[in-house]
Design a protein that fits this description.
124 residues; mainly beta; Thrombin, subunit H; 0% helix; globular; disordered C terminus
């Protein structure tokens, strides 16, 4: 018996996942992203169907770095890259509701991710 499940972030051409998704063992939620198409989604494991169910999807969201999960608040912190700026964003892990944002004006993208326009990246 296989102990895994495969679910696409979104079925789009030229997708790219450059870092591992975040898995919350407490809530059985996987937060994954497709950086090239600017999509982030949450998938929750269902005991009933023994599979992953999509619980949230945000488009126009350029997540490309590792996420941090805060168990006490149920929030994940990640980035949202747009050309020439990068934001650190706090999201509710179950709903995707934005809890906070801090934007930096920058010519680079934070962390180790390929930029869509081919600009080399580095950590700020």
């Amino acid at each position: 018996m296989n102990n895994f499940n495969i679910a696409p972030v979104r079925s789009l051409a030229k997708d790219s996942t450059t870092n591992n998704p975040l898995y919350c063992t407490q809530k059985k939620i996987l937060v994954a992203f497709d950086f090239a198409n600017r999509v982030i989604c949450g998938l929750k494991y269902s005991e009933e169907s023994r599979g992953l169910l999509k619980i949230l999807e945000k488009t126009s969201f350029g997540c490309g770095r590792r996420m941090i999960y805060y168990r006490d608040t149920g929030e994940t912190v990640t980035n949202n890259y747009k050309r020439f700026s990068d934001s650190t964003v706090g999201l509710d892990i179950e709903s995707g509701h934005e809890k906070g944002r801090d934007t930096l004006k920058s010519f680079s993208q934070v962390c180790f991710s390929p930029a869509r326009d081919g600009i080399a990246t580095f950590i700020i």
